[in-house]
User: Fold this.
Amino acid sequence: MKYRTASVDRTVWLGRQLGAQLGDSDSIALVGDLGGGKTWFTKGIAMGLNIDPDSIVSPTFTLVNEYTGRERLFHIDLYRLENADEIMALDLDAYFSEEGIVVLEWADRWPGELPEETVRVAFTMIDEHTREVGFSGSHARAETIIRAVKKSVGAALAQTV
Assistant:
C-alpha cells in the first residue's frame, strides 16, 4: 500500500494514522533517503501515541530517544553507525524486547532480521515537497496494522500503485 503526501503536514498526518493503530511490542522500520521525511513521519506516530510531537527530535547523535505517551516509544536512528559490528555492540536489539513501540530509522542498515511483525515504511522523494510512502509487512500483525491505516486514511490521501 502506497500513498503520496504533498507536504510535511500530510506526512505527519499519515504517521499519526499509523501511530493510532500501534500497541505494545509493535515495531516500525523506516527506510528512505536523507531528507525523505522519516523524522517528520515519526512525529506523526508520536501524535498517534499521545506524545507531544514537538518533543520528537532525530536521535542521529544520541542513537535512541525514549518518549512516554499511551505507550512508550523508542526512536532509534542508525544513520551514523557504519557497520553491523557497531550496531550489534550497542545491544540495540534489546529494545525490541522492551514494553513499548520501536521506530527504527535507516532500518535497511540493521544487521540481520527485524522482528517478523515489523511494519516496513519506505519513503521515496518525488520532489521537494512530495513523498511516496509505502507500507509493507507479511506477518498477521503487520497486515492488521496496515489494513487499519488504510481504513483510517480512507480517501484523504491518494493511493498509488
Notes: The beta strands are 2-5, 27-32, 64-68, 72-77, 101-105, 119-125, 131-136, 159-160. The domain at 2-140 is CATH 3.40.50.300 (Rossmann fold). The first strand starts at residue 2 and ends at 5.
